[in-house]
Design brief:
Helix content: 40-55%
Strand order of the largest sheet: 3-2-1-4
Structural class: alpha+beta
Shape: globular
Bound molecules: zinc ion
Number of domains: 1
């Protein structure tokens, strides 16, 4: 079996698992940051809440409705974020962007590399440009939440 088909299988497995049983789904008591995201091309909507303790993500939860990829991406993002600093969260955003698009993200220059772990399966969306917006919606929403922007994040 080639590593390509291994990745495809892992991608499908992870997406299916997290879209059926999203982790950290619901409202967060004591949220300090929040933002909404909207991907009208697919109909994905997300509401993200974070509790920051100083510079660190203490807790994070999301609610919303969308396709399997947007839900799985938000679920995996919440798992990846707990305990991370703002800077690590920003670095993850840029690496996730690169993973999904296959393009080096020039805005990300200067951010350290962090181990993105399971998020690497999103390499699987590269073949489907419309799906990239589904996979990155939660991450755009995260950036707005951390920046204190409360207008909905769009994927455009
Ligand atoms: Zn979608």
């Amino acid at each position: 079996m080639s590593s390509d088909s291994n990745l495809r299988e892992l991608y499908q497995e992870v997406i299916l698992d997290h879209s059926k049983r999203p982790r950290n789904f619901g409202r967060l008591q004591g949220a300090t940051h929040h933002a909404d995201g909207d991907n009208p091309l697919c109909g994905d909507r997300i509401h993200l809440e974070l509790e920051m303790a100083g510079d660190r993500v203490k807790d994070v939860r999301f609610e919303g409705q969308g396709c399997a990829i947007s839900t799985a991406s938000a679920s995996l993002m919440t798992e990846a974020l707990k305990g991370r600093t703002r800077e690590e969260a920003e670095a993850l955003f840029h690496q996730m962007h690169e993973t999904c698009t296959g393009q080096p993200d020039t805005n990300g220059a200067g951010h350290g590399k962090v181990d993105i772990g399971k998020l690497a399966v999103f390499e699987g969306v590269r073949q489907y440009p419309l799906r990239v917006k589904c996979a990155t919606l939660a991450w755009h929403t995260l950036r707005n939440a951390l920046a204190g922007k409360h207008e909905p994040a769009h994927t455009e």
